[in-house]
Amino acid sequence: MTHNMERVNGLGALTEDRLKMLIREANAAKAQAYSPYSHFRVGSALLTRDNRIFTGCNVENACYNLGQCAERNTIAKAVSEGYKSFRAIVISSDLSEKFISPCGGCRQFMREFGLDWEVYLTKTDGSSLRMTVAELLPVSFGPEDLAMKKLTLQNDS
Asked: Which domains does the chain have, with CATH numbers?
């Protein structure tokens, strides 16, 4: 069952039916994962504020650091189609004993698009844990920090 069903950004948490559908979409995306090295499949389903759904999976590479996580693939797919405002992302893997959790890089990538949208961590039994981006990446650095006043350095020459 889903935990933390309080309202987020006035939209409210996802309904059980919507969440189950997004978990199915994330699992379908996971089936497309290209993970010949780690054998760790991950899929995700992203819901935009206007209810458009994007999916993605992890894609590994023989040059390990060039691999791409499912969450970043999914968000990049949405952004490339003109979407930058998200309501929720569901992440699925083959883990059965604990909820899949996004890596630090994916947390920062999600943060780029706000703090108050939902992230659903799942297990293979269909259960989920709802968090927000803010809960996953507390005391974070984001786009608004670039506009803050900074110390002006003097040129010593």
From this structure: 16-147 (3.40.140.10)
